[in-house]
Amino acid sequence: MVHGTPRGLLSALTEISDRLSEARANGTGVGVLCVTVLPDVALCRLSLERGHKLEAEVAERLRRLLRKQDMLFGGERREWLLVLPGLQSAAVLTLAMMKIGQAFNAHPVVLEGLEVEVPLTCGASMAPEHGENPLHLVQSARIAALAAAQANLGGQIYDPGMEQVSPRLAQLERELRACFAGDNRLELHLQPKVRPQAGKCDAAEGLLRWQRLPDDWVPAPVIISLIDRMGMRHLFNRWLFQRAAHTLHSLREAGVVITLSINLSASDLYDAEVPDLVGQALATWGIDARQLCLEITETGMIEERNGEGVTDVLHRLRTLGISLSIDDFGTGFSSMSRLQQLSVQELKIDRSFIQDIARSEKDREIAASIIELSHRLGISVTAEGVEDEPTAAILTALDCDHLQGYLFARAMPVEAFVTWLEQPQGWRRIAVPGRTPDEDQVRRGAFG
To answer: What is the Cα–Cα distance from 300 to 402, expressed in whole angstroms?
Structure first.
């Protein structure tokens, strides 16, 4: 967190999301200003203490320029974000950048009697003109600030022409927009989650798939990167929730009732409209909320001290009856403290702890500890990346609730998933170490 500013980037995203909701209701705009200190030789030579004092002074000057309804946040190093709600036109942003320039150009910062010139540049974006996704608006403001610095200008408002893209990237963006406009090439494929103790498949994960051409599948990470780059995360989430509910409806029509998991980034939890979008999708297709599970990825992005907005969103999701899961548990910043903070009903052990479990005693101990402690807390556990019989047998012996991986099946279209469930050759036996064959757990699976 930057000295002198109350909160950081993720809190800024929450503020922008809240102001966007108000703007849609009253027909006004929301502006985002990015103020950055440019690299300077003199500033590089400041001591750590003087550097902190400089940042605090810059933040205080910016705060004095704010209107009553504006908010100031700390971004990256020596970067500040200003959120300006209730705008009637972009002219307010231009005026704000002029005032910021004047405030620093006319009066250098004084540190312990030493005058320090602070070279600043500003960039601005505005909703709805430049999109309605909080992160996209911040990124657009940053791009505008970079363009202003390159042009030796005090500030600029974002323009799409500031971004140069390759012909292939431009083509992918056009096709992805078409997908959300009614082109059905974007799909959810289902990968089974097998319950080995009961010998059945009662859940699946919905994985994003996009087939551009017969032999051209766009990888899911590329799809998500494009969505974020284009500022379409909110639109994508609306599509995702509707598609998940429609998938559950199609399965019900085929006589199949399961729990469906879909991935949601932790940053999406700063979007106050997510619970409403989920609720609308479930109501549209008449789906019981208990059939939907949201797997939260990138949980390290959640600020423990400034997660008021996230707490509200999680509470509203739980009120709907949605279950929550932590994806890729054991990696990055995911930890047992996240289980308490997020109040989840499931966690997924990351495949990095699963792939060598048959050969690594350390990995077996880690998996056993996670499963035992989770069960004590009333949390179910899924192991992903299960690709062979020995791994499945060990996890079954450890009482892991669900197994998922290529040993059973790859992700497949809904129709193929229903057929897979009906295949008698899918039944297989897991030889659990230390048990007789008669005690073996039966599980349903098929090689993908």
So the answer is: 24
